[in-house]
Specification:
Chain B: InterPro entries: AAA+_ATPase, ABC_AA/LPS_Transport, ABC_transporter-like_ATP-bd, ABC_transporter-like_CS, P-loop_NTPase. The complex is a heterodimer of chains A (333) and B (251). Chain A has 333 residues and is mostly helical. Chain A is built from 15 helices and two strands. Chain A has a domain of 224 residues. Chain A has a two-stranded antiparallel ribbon with strand order 1-2. Chain A starts with 8 loop residues before the first helix and ends in a 16-residue tail after the last helix. Chain B has a six-stranded mixed beta sheet, sandwiched between helices. In chain B, strands 2-1-4-5 form a four-stranded antiparallel beta sheet, with helices on one face. Classes of the chains: A mainly alpha (333), B alpha/beta (251). The structure holds adenosine-5'-diphosphate and magnesium ion. The site of adenosine-5'-diphosphate (ADP) has 10 residues of chain B, from helix 1.
């Protein structure tokens, strides 16, 4: 049932590809930002929803990726090299830091990732001579995939659309792979996984590193998008916002975090033109969704879809579970 | 020769000594049952043997290799797997997914991430075989928390068997089962091939005597007596401490 909307990814891809034809220049820019944020929030959603690792420092990897493009970009201009370097360096930093704190879980993991993120933030903030400190720095590298510089908003939009679709597809494959299933099993029941012979630390470390890598990749795209980076990109407040986007969108899915990112980026761009109480409004929405829609926007959308869609699809809705009269049903808790 | 050896194992929790100088030998192919009153330390012994809990003194040797001191996940690699006294499953996943995880645990492709798990024919075949063999084929797509208690208990055993262990540790496999389920499970245990060496903790005396080649009585964390079923059932002191004077066969 859940898959109905998404069973037609071609429709979704077609919409993404055609969107620039109907959107204004600003709309194209906003959608590009949504897609970049969606990649980042999906990377966080991966460790939260599938590995049970709730991080409050994930922006550090996003910011790191962005700074790699900004800093290395002053020396070289090859887009491929810069983006890959951003992803790899973020991945390595995630791996090394993960080695140290992947043992902890729950609130401890949250605190230690928060501390680590703030530490990286402080480094970029303090190293004024290199990073420009609080003022941030401009991104001088130009975007060029070998077919000439991509300067138009629409050209950039198509680039991030492809990046988003590929990231989403790879994440889909990942969560259905043996490794991804193992990660999910660890979230469900660590002691059983250990008893089955899984080294759960290896799994957590791998998924954490991959997630950091993807966050760095999103950060690199953001550096090209914004053409300016600042330490705010690593700040825990940004990590917290991404965390809220995951929870509001729907934990435990890939689509959820992407929806959460879209919801907040678009809402923010409208609301912040009227008021600067944006963080408070975000908080209120967060509380409301956590209280009343436990599965996040995704679940609410599914409920509405099931209510509102045309009647002729009605038959599909009935569950396909066989009716078995063997007496076991009554036992279930 | 002994496939599994526990030598002078001691374990305490913050000053409370739960196991004291426990030694135990299990031969290849043997079906060894551990009995003893609640709180005797039986489950703790399993936890220490598999590395789930660190031990204070002594060692555990599997197939000539020392296993104590190694992390818990290595037990399965050395051919020893276990079940839990309290069901310890993936409650939110389906029966099939539970078994997939168990089957994949020691496979070389367990770290693969570029291909869906559903494309691994060997894993699917092994899962199917286990489902069919243990009568859960019909219920393969059920979410585990929706299964009956007895079925969940059975799945405990299936998960442990999925790694094709040489040594299987069962912690009260029939606890909480209905009499019919107990009989069925006993028969399933009896039908296991002798290539699987069994060490079973069990309370139900009918079950104990229908599967045991050898019985060890654990009492206050110490091995009180170890012997053949006849020796144990004939021992007056065992009756005294464990059964409070009742008869062994019908406890
Ligand atoms: N993790 C633990 N921490 C403290 N005490 C424990 C722990 N596990 C078991 N015990 C204690 O050890 C004793 C033996 O428990 P257990 O091995 O479960 O006995 P049995 O399985 O024979 O019924 C009990 O007194 C129990 O309270
Ligand atoms: Mg016990």
């Amino acid at each position: 049932m859940r898959a109905n909307i998404w069973r037609t990814p071609t429709l979704f891809i077609a919409i993404l590809l055609l969107l620039p034809l109907i959107l204004t220049n600003y709309g194209v820019k906003l959608t590009s930002e949504v897609l970049i944020m969606a990649i980042f929030v999906m990377s966080l959603g991966l460790i939260i929803g599938f590995a049970g690792l709730v991080s409050l420092g994930h922006a550090a990897f996003f910011g790191l990726g962005a700074y790699v493009v900004a800093l290395l970009g002053t020396h070289l201009d090859n887009t491929y090299v810069l983006i890959i370097a951003a992803a790899v360096i973020s991945g390595i930093v995630a791996f090394v830091s993960g080695l140290l704190f992947i043992r902890s879980s729950g609130a401890y993991f949250l605190m230690i990732t928060l501390a680590f993120g703030q530490m990286l933030f402080a480094i970029f903030y303090k190293m004024e001579s290199v990073t420009g400190g609080a003022d941030g720095m401009a991104v001088s590298a130009s975007l060029n995939l070998g077919f000439g510089a991509i300067e138009s908003r629409v050209g950039f939009y198509y680039l991030v659309t492809i990046a988003f679709l590929v990231s989403y597809y790879l994440l889909r494959v990942f969560i259905s792979s043996p490794l991804g299933k193992g990660v999910r099993g660890i979230k469900e029941n660590e002691s059983r996984m250990t008893a089955l012979g899984y080294n759960i630390r290896h799994y957590k470390l791998i998924v954490y590193s991959l997630s950091g890598m993807l966050a760095g990749f999103a950060g690199a795209l953001y550096a090209y998008f914004n053409q300016y980076v600042s330490p705010d990109l690593l700040h825990w407040m940004f990590s917290g916002q991404a965390l809220i986007m995951v929870i509001v969108g729907g934990v435990g899915t890939l689509v959820g975090p992407a929806i959460g990112a879209g919801f907040f980026v678009i809402l923010q761009s409208y609301i912040s033109s009227y008021t600067d109480r944006w963080p408070m409004i975000m908080g209120v929405i967060f509380v409301a969704i956590v209280l009343y829609g436990r599965g996040g926007i995704l679940q609410i959308a599914m409920l509405l879809w099931n209510k509102l869609r045309p009647k002729r699809h009605k038959e599909e809705e009935t569950p396909i579970l066989p009716k078995e009269g063997n007496g076991f049903e009554s036992v279930k808790g | 020769m002994s496939l599994l050896k526990v030598e002078h194992l001691s374990k305490s929790f913050k000053g409370l000594q739960v196991l004291r100088d426990v030694s135990l030998e299990v031969r290849e192919g043997e079906r060894h049952v551990i009995i003893g009153p609640n709180g005797a330390g039986k489950t703790t012994l399993f936890n220490c043997m598999t590395g789930t809990l660190p031990i204070n003194e002594g060692k555990v040797v599997v197939n000539g290799q020392q296993i104590s001191g190694l992390p818990a996940y290595t037990a399965v690699r050395m051919g020893m797997s276990r079940t839990f006294q309290k069901n310890n499953l993936f409650g939110e996943l389906s029966v099939e997914e539970n078994i997939h995880l168990a089957v994949t645990a020691c496979k070389p492709y367990r770290f693969h991430f570029l291909k869906p798990a559903s494309k691994y024919a060997e894993m699917l075949a092994e899962t199917q075989e286990l489902l069919a063999q243990w009568g859960l084929w019909e219920r393969r797509s059920r979410i585990v928390s929706e299964l009956s208690y007895g079925e969940q208990r059975l799945l405990e055993v299936i998960l442990a068997l999925a790694s094709k262990p040489n040594i299987l540790l069962l912690d009260e496999p029939t606890s909480g089962m209905s009499p019919a389920e107990t009989v069925q499970t006993t028969m399933l245990i009896q039908s296991m091939p002798r290539s699987i060496t069994l060490l079973v903790i069990e309370h139900d005396m009918e079950v104990v005597f229908s599967i045991a080649d050898r019985i060890t009585v654990l009492h206050h964390g110490e091995v009180f007596l170890s012997g053949s079923p006849d020796e144990i059932s004939g021992d007056a002191r065992v009756k005294e401490i464990y059964f409070g004077g009742g008869t062994l066969k019908h406890a």
